[in-house]
């Protein structure tokens, strides 16, 4: 029996064949996500063979069936192909929800800077927004990572540094300028995430 010189290419080709009913852009995104996952897994776990990595991903038919179901092209109630133990991921949360939770609480906290309750709730909602973004089916892994870094990690770091090292009161012009710059960053990032989201 002839063995392939490039099992990754063969695997991705099989997924592409099985997912031929997907729109071309969704199919490309699926293949890019799989290729990225394979690459990251091989880098993080160099002792694992490529065959084991592909086996962990699962059967190409299963992956294609899951992608079709997520896209709404699968038939509801149709069982997944044999060996499909993983549940089909559905986009249960509207993509606007995490984006608003990452942006609006900061705006409220900037308008009411002296309220401890507002600061706590702002942080809580932003953490929930980051979790919802990370678990969403509407963005790729790289897009989620970029979104969380720009909307949650970077602003939180900036606020922490400001509070630790700035002696100026919250209401002065420097603080207002910092808040405005952070809001611009949040708005630009959430607009970008909204524009590139998957349906």
Number of helices: 8
What is the gyration radius calculated from CA atoms?
A: 22 Å
Question: How many strands?
Answer: 0
**Helix content class:** 55-70%
Explain how this protein is built.
It contains 8 helices and no strands. About 9% of the residues have low confidence.
Fold blueprint:
Blueprint: H1 7-18, H2 24-44, H3 50-57, H4 60-71, H5 96-111, H6 116-135, H7 141-165, H8 173-196
Helix pairs in contact: 1-2, 1-4, 2-3, 5-6, 5-8, 6-7, 7-8
Name some characteristics of this structure.
199 residues; 69% helix; single chain; elongated; 8 helices; mainly alpha
Write a concise synopsis of the structure shown.
By secondary structure, this protein is mainly alpha-helical. It has eight helices and no strands. It starts with 6 loop residues before the first helix and ends with a helix.
